[in-house]
């Protein structure tokens, strides 16, 4: 069984590779706003994924110890998504809103793809 930290570590590697491709796209193409939006969204998406992993571990500890209530940090991740949209809307000459929203979802798309590949290999 893989731990959340193993999954997060693998996701970071893939996402950093994608970020490097986005930076190259930003530097060498005429689609600077789209790639800047993808970079912005991906960075916030990585932050959201890190929050989710951290909160899931805390949630697991809280449930196993039988203490109080636990939260998965949904409001914090939602606020982060609103911040990405606000930045992209307030600076349209630098960031593309659609690219930023797609970038925000990239870590979750990678997570689903990773889980599908994991389960097809091991089951």
Automatic annotation (TrEMBL):
Keywords: Cell membrane, Membrane, Transmembrane, Transmembrane helix. It is a multi-pass membrane protein. The chain crosses the membrane at residues 12-28, 34-53, 74-91, 97-118. It holds the Pfam family ATP-synt_I. One of its GO terms (cellular component) is plasma membrane. The keyword Cell membrane applies. It is found in: Cell membrane. It comes from the Bacteria. InterPro entries: ATP_synth_I (IPR005598), ATP_synth_I_Bacilli (IPR039072). PANTHER family: ATP SYNTHASE PROTEIN I (PTHR40035:SF1). This is ATP synthase I chain.
């Amino acid at each position: 069984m893989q731990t959340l930290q193993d999954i997060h570590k693998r996701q970071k590697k893939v996402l950093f590779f994608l970020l490097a491709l986005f930076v190259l796209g930003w530097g060498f193409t005429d689609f600077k706003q789209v790639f800047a939006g993808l970079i912005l969204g991906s960075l916030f998406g990585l932050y959201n994924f890190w929050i989710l992993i951290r909160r899931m571990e805390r949630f697991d500890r809280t449930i196993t110890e039988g203490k109080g209530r636990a939260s998965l940090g949904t409001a914090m991740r939602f606020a982060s998504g609103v911040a990405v949209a606000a930045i992209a809307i307030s600076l349209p000459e630098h960031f593309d809103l659609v690219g930023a929203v797609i970038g925000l979802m990239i870590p979750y798309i990678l997570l689903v793809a990773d889980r599908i590949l994991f389960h097809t290999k091991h089951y």
